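Please check the following.

. . .
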Amino acid sequence: MKLARFRNWLLAASMAVGLLAVPHLHAATAAEALKEDAVCTRCHDYTEAKPVLSIYQTRHGVKADARTPTCQSCHGASEKHMKGDPNQSGRAATDVQFGHGGAYPPSDAAEQTGTCLNCHKSGARAHWAGSEHAGRDVVCADCHKVHVRNDPVLSKQTQTEVCFACHKEQRAQIHRNSTHPIAAGQIACSDCHNPHGSTADHLLVKRSVNETCYSCHAEKRGPFLWEHGPVTDDCSNCHTPHGSVNPTLLKQRTPWLCQDCHSGDHANQVNSGGNLPGGNVTTVNGNAPLASAAPRAQLNARNCMNCHVLIHGSNHVGGSKYLR
């Protein structure tokens, strides 16, 4: 008896807060939605060149959920498309036409995205207005395939190919010697970037480059007793995120990378790898011909990190030079 009363109370409470709907209301909603869709699906059936009916295998086709849209929810009432337009030869387009390459020209970008944002306007999509993609008139249907069971952009294994349709430079970079496991499908573009908009540069998911990198590379976060300035400033000072011909995604090979900042030397002559006009190089004693500049013993094997291994920061009391 007590269990039955509790079950009835839980049902009433769930209905009151909208967590659960009465079963017959779900059935009525589903029947009405399918009846409304039937106006479209009697023509747009499995014979279509592009998948249409497979939308019922997606979240947009779950008719037991009252929030699920119908065909008209997205494409508009489209009276002229269904009943014909005496002022136009052939069948008119729907009120809202998505994507590109269809039988009809696409609707305005603002109208397309506005239709989607009627429902999808919170969370990660809150910054769409004014974002880089919105400014270039990219629309939702350029990346998303709503009618297919598995939207490629929502899977790590296939998402990158969607992004690389436009970002071709990054496609080439991920196939270099050193790269994040993007091609392997272990991480996707959306792990670092929010394509719907961001308050950070480069559509990053976090507030800065470093915060985004620290999501995975927490051991580099610190704080350290001795902090390396370029590291705390921006990881991309030394690393390129999509791929590099140098180890560990470095923008240049050491020692040249280090010498971009460190023009001083270990009490030896040459303190820069950059050639100056006339074949000279910079030394602690001024400019000198390259031929007379003695090699640096400290750069044996041409790698600063042979000694300065704690390059991201050190907690050792004597670690101001990031040595072993």
Remarks:
- The longest strand covers residues 270-276.
- Residues 45 and 53 are 6 Å apart (CA to CA).
- Residues 231-314 form one domain.
- Residues 23-41 form the longest helix (19 residues).
